[in-house]
Amino acid sequence: MQIVIDRHSKVPIYRQIVDRIRELIVSGTLPEGFRLPPERRLAEALGVNRSTVLTAYRELKAEGLLHAHVGRGTSVHAPVQAGGSVRDSGAIPWKQLFREGASHRQDPVVRDLLELTERRDVISLAVGLPAPELLPLPLLTTIFDSLVEEAGPEILLHCPTEGHTPLRETLTRWLATRGIACTVPETLVLSGSQQGLDLMVRALVDPGDVVVVEEPTYVGILPVLRTAQARVLTVPVDHDGMRTDVLETILARHRPKLIYTLPTFQNPSGVEMSLTRRRELLELAARNQVPILEDDPYSELCYDGSPLPSLKALDTTGQVVYLSTLSKVLFPGMRLGFMAGPRPLIRTLALLKQGVDLHASSVGQRLLDRFIRDGHYEPYLKTLRTAYAERRDTMDRALNAGSIPGLAWTKPRGGFYFWCRLPKEVERSRLLAEAADTGVAYLPGDACFAEPPADTFVRLNFSYSSPEQIGDGIERFLESVRRAMRTSRTQIPHQIGTKPVV
Amino acid sequence: MQIVIDRHSKVPIYRQIVDRIRELIVSGTLPEGFRLPPERRLAEALGVNRSTVLTAYRELKAEGLLHAHVGRGTSVHAPVQAGGSVRDSGAIPWKQLFREGASHRQDPVVRDLLELTERRDVISLAVGLPAPELLPLPLLTTIFDSLVEEAGPEILLHCPTEGHTPLRETLTRWLATRGIACTVPETLVLSGSQQGLDLMVRALVDPGDVVVVEEPTYVGILPVLRTAQARVLTVPVDHDGMRTDVLETILARHRPKLIYTLPTFQNPSGVEMSLTRRRELLELAARNQVPILEDDPYSELCYDGSPLPSLKALDTTGQVVYLSTLSKVLFPGMRLGFMAGPRPLIRTLALLKQGVDLHASSVGQRLLDRFIRDGHYEPYLKTLRTAYAERRDTMDRALNAGSIPGLAWTKPRGGFYFWCRLPKEVERSRLLAEAADTGVAYLPGDACFAEPPADTFVRLNFSYSSPEQIGDGIERFLESVRRAMRTSRTQIPHQIGTKPVV
Question: Are the beta carbons of B348 and A115 separated by less than 8 Å?
């Protein structure tokens, strides 16, 4: 990327940079996805102030020519008309054809997070993954070999849409030990618990229908609701979980198709809904005949004592649909989840699923079934709990060591995440660039809100990285926070060749 | 199931049977899904005419208390109100809450087919599966072991939504050898090719939008279009494939969002669209700016000579979206497919996919990538072609040996299926029961039509079963056909205790 600055020009330097980069994008020299150098490096290369480059990038973002991505900083978002061959643009005006809900303007945050999994140059505190080095790979390999031995090529073939029957039986027994009584026909094996969200919304939600979610909420529910063109109403989460008093006011005015909640060690906030709130939620939902979708991927990962009973375990009227996954701790990449709910619902979801992807991975289902049946699951969980508790404590200490005034968080009792409120002086977009620059990735809190919050939050994962990486990563993150404070700009002393542009 | 017949009653015997079974269902004694004995066996047990039982079952089906399923014959479809506990029926009136497109009244035919995979008592000519005994399981196990060795636990983690990058590179090279030029960002790895249908329709189709499909068409596209509440217009297939003259009349009146075609060894008809028709289709679609979704799972399985070039290979305007799978011949149960299309479309589909299931199986993608990269794919395909050609010829001979007048089929040059038109005298519902009775499963042709056809068709698969099973299965099938002919009823000689009821 060649940029020549004319220090004698009347055109401000930041404007010269904007014009040159725009030219390179529109001519196709910088293709879609091309990563621009971090602001600091470009500034050094050009011998200009960092804030000058920051302003230039910001302007190009406003023009829609650049994108800021989690963990990658800033990259080119080339308009289709620019530099596109016939093959690229096509005879078909695709953007005119897309459904409103499937707009290409969807927030790509989940996709961006997953792209990080192929990056080696970043400490990722962003993705919600288990610790790779703790995964029971040798054991899974042994089970795989014995499945090959016993069942032969059948393991590669199709299986029923609702799931491999022995696994469904195993799941009902597993659920029973968690206080959830259900029969095999009340279960559905999913291609990842994300699919449970999608199927539920597809079964119930017409455009304009109201769906209630927590604020903040799981980042992956939002694209599903946008695709369905749902009207999303939010209920704030405090230290006791979803605020049932706010829910009550919503239910007084609306009849939602669904209440979506993640009551135990919530993603992203780490909050555990109190028992009182759980009962209030159930009572409110029952009185208004609104189904509850309970997403419960983390209750097994409780580091101090035991988790509270699930909503489903407390449910006496059959209104709670339970969604979980065991593969989060075993093999998230194999995409397995499951649901438990009333039969008319499960039947309808299965009929949808036949058109969506036929069924979940046969091999994965058999592996999971045998892993649990052979008694490996509980001992493995114990190992995880010990290791993750240590990582959580490491992250807590590292955050404390930073001593940044205005940075606030609560140490969670379980789950995968710290949820931090940042000092008011932090600029969100600048933090993203700074973090990419220092080589650390986090999930921007905005992604967990249906509408951008006033405060700045970040979600930091402590399960994936080693304690050493966590220490290092938090150090980098805190350094980025310091640099991204509005006040820090006054510390930049030198201006080269032109007046300050900001 | 206890049924007592009173031969001295004035109530006709068939009516006594209806009343008793209804009572058993409504009381909850026969639960949802309970399989009723085949008509023949119940008739023998009760000492009554088979047609009496047939009539009773038919009446119960009309009442919605029984269902006829592929490969299982007849089972109980208990109404939710009947025999349901509070847990079953729930406080939530689920059926009132479902979207119109997600109705529980969807045709469960794909789900029913997949359920067959756990049945051992039926010769399945129904499911489109590869021959289990030919699957390269030892080779795949070796590759799996070396992946574990090389990449470690990473193989169990997430991967990018668009797919594991090395696999996408491999796929572009594979596509290039099939005359399809595309770059990595123009590819998308899917959780099975079924997902490609679902994502395309979700991206493009609003309720009421027109989609053109072939008649007959792939059974799995229909639930997708029903869920989307699309208006489905059909174009008949003749020996040269989709009738472009009929398509032209449709395009004169409508502007479809999509033309869906399976031009090479079509599922179910086995027909290969001629080169002339391919060019006509491309020309028509280009003139009207309608995208074509080309589904091409079978062109690799050509048993005589080479397949014609794909529509995508002939496409000069970028209007064809190519959908295929290599896992159909390797491991259908691991759910892998892929698409190649213009970047704006692929980007939008990836944004949808992030909410649908995050990404396709990481392990499966790595297995497939290595299998192709290491050069195993082509030799394996050769083995399959030889074996499947033999099975195809076996099925052709067995059908010929039956000498049933009015039974018509064409031996296909490739793919997985024979498509048979049955004699006009055959009763469809009776054939299903007869086939279940003799222990053979086929796909009823009706399932491949958006609206029930006048003639009766069946799809018979020749890839899954061994040549011996094919011989045996076709014999059973032909016997069922003979029994299901309307004329055959006159051959039943004895009537017991009451007048004939039909």
Answer: no
Confidence of residue A67 (pLDDT cuts 50, 70, 90): confident
Backbone φ and ψ of B177, nearest 5°: -70, -15
CA distances from B254 to A358, A426, B209, B229, B247 (A): 31, 54, 10, 17, 10
Per CATH, which fold does A123-134+380-490 belong to?
Aspartate Aminotransferase, domain 1 (3.90.1150)
Residue-averaged pLDDT of chain B: 89
CB contact under 8 A, B156 and A330: yes
Q: Do A129 and B333 touch (CB under 8 A)?
A: no
Lowest-pLDDT range, A213-222, A486-495, B110-119? A486-495
Q: Where are the domains of chain B?
A: 13-106, 123-134+379-490, 140-375
Residue from A321, A324, A241 nearest A275 by CA: A241
Specify the pLDDT at position B235: 98
Choices 3.30.300.30, 3.40.630.30, 3.30.1330.40, 3.40.640.10: CATH for B140-375 = 3.40.640.10
The per-residue pLDDT for A253 is 96
User: Contact, B129 vs B335, CB < 8 A?
Assistant: no
Asked if B392 and B462 count as a contact pair (C-beta separation under 8 A), the reply is yes
Give me the pLDDT at residue B78, please.
Answer: 67
User: In this predicted structure, which of A122-126, B217-221, B288-292 has the lowest mean pLDDT?
Assistant: A122-126
Average pLDDT estimate for B274-284: 97
Q: Which residue of chain A comes nearest to B96, CA vs CA?
A: A204
Chain B residue with minimal CA distance to A93?
B289
Residue A435, CB half-sphere, CA atoms under 13 Å: how many?
29
Q: What confidence tens digit (pLDDT) does each residue in B292-305 have?
A: 999 999 999 999 99
Comparing CA positions, the residue from A309, A360, A366 lying closest to residue A339 is A360
Question: Chain B contact for A160, CB < 8 A?
Answer: yes
Backbone angles phi, psi at A73, to 5 degrees: 70, -130
Of residues A122 and A73, the one with the higher pLDDT is A122
Strand A231-238 relative to strand A241-242: parallel, antiparallel, unpaired? Answer: antiparallel
**Cβ atoms of B203 and B349 closer than 8 Å:** yes
At the second CATH level, the architecture of A137-377 is 3-Layer(aba) Sandwich (3.40)
Q: Give the best-scoring range by mean pLDDT among A92-96, A107-111, B89-93, B480-484.
A: B480-484
Size of interface A-B (CB pairs under 8 A): 352
Which superfamily does B123-134+379-490 belong to? Aspartate Aminotransferase, domain 1 (3.90.1150.10)
pLDDT of residue A79: 59
Would you state the structure tokens that stand for residue B235, as one six-digit string?
């174009």
CB contact residues (below 8 A), chain B span 243-262, against chain A: 257
**Residue-wise pLDDT tens digits, A398-436:** 999 999 999 999 999 999 999 999 999 998 888 988 898
Taking a C-beta distance cutoff of 8 angstroms, is the pair A180, A340 a contact? Answer: yes
For A260-273, what is the HEC assignment?
EECCCCCCCCCCCC
Q: Which one-letter amino acid corresponds to residue A2? A: Q
**A196: Cα within 13 Å, side-chain hemisphere:** 26
H helix runs in B189-270, sequence order = 193-204, 221-227, 244-253
Strands B231-238, B241-242: pairing kind: antiparallel
Is A110 close to B358, i.e. CB distance below 8 A?
A: yes
Neighbour tally for A488: CB within 10 Å: 17
Rounded-to-5 percentages of helix, strand, coil across chain B:
45, 15, 40
CB A353 within 8 A of CB B102: no
Using the predicted structure, report yes or no on whether residue B81 has a pLDDT greater than 70.
Answer: no
Please measure the distance between the N-terminal and C-terminal CA atoms of chain B and give it in whole angstroms: 24
pLDDT bin (cut points 50, 70, 90) of residue A119 is confident
